[in-house]
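SUBJECT: protein chain
CONTENTS: sequence, structure tokens:
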Amino acid sequence: DGDPHFVVEFPLSKLTVCFNINGEPGHVLRLVSDHKYSGVTVNGKLIGAPAPPGSHKQQRTYFSSIAIVVDHQRRAYIEVTPKKVILDGRDRIVLPCHTTMAVDSDMLSVAISGRSNVTVTVGGNISFVILLHQYKNPAPYQRDHLGFYIANSTGLSHSCHGLLGQFLHEEVGVAQLPAQGDSNPSVFLKVKDRSVPVVRKSRRIYSGRQNVDCWFARNNAEKLIDGQYEDYVTSHMFDTGEWPHGTNKV
């Protein structure tokens, strides 16, 4: 949510980790990739905005649209923007985001809570919540955008990947190196066979209604995520290609 700020809870490890992705406007990022098993893929498109005054960043990026593709028996998709939801299942339906309604179509169901959020449920055991952020009088650095949350992942496989999907069935640990001289102790996350330097941060989620403390990984989540940022950039919103380096689980 936000300027792609990612917050990942590791239920197996009872830890919360966060990171930023400083993407490029126009890039489409693979968030969840489970095409081979559950048939579900989630991609998000980035939009750019100038950074606010006094910021150390040159620009901000946000998600301007989210596509959820389901390719199980037959292909269907939902595309969400801050203003409308396109549901392409049995029929193609366009729903405005300022209303409150629910629609079912084959494997997919969508529930819109007017101007607040969109809940997409796949097959009863996978659900995503997409927050709608709209501004009546936006400042120059504000853009209508979306937040993306995985609400129920029980239907996603252990081979699930993507910027968020790769963490669903992962365990991490925290290790601390003693202080050297005047420096503070160094804290590392142990992810697979990698050591990731982290610092303690606080993040506001769900439109600022909830505050979480998390271990923050710098530099576009270097070492925390499998591969590099560029590996998660896809060719278009409905691209369901597999993670190029094999599955997440050995």
Q: What stands out?
A: The chain has a mean pLDDT of 89. The CA atoms of residues 86 and 167 lie 28 Å apart.
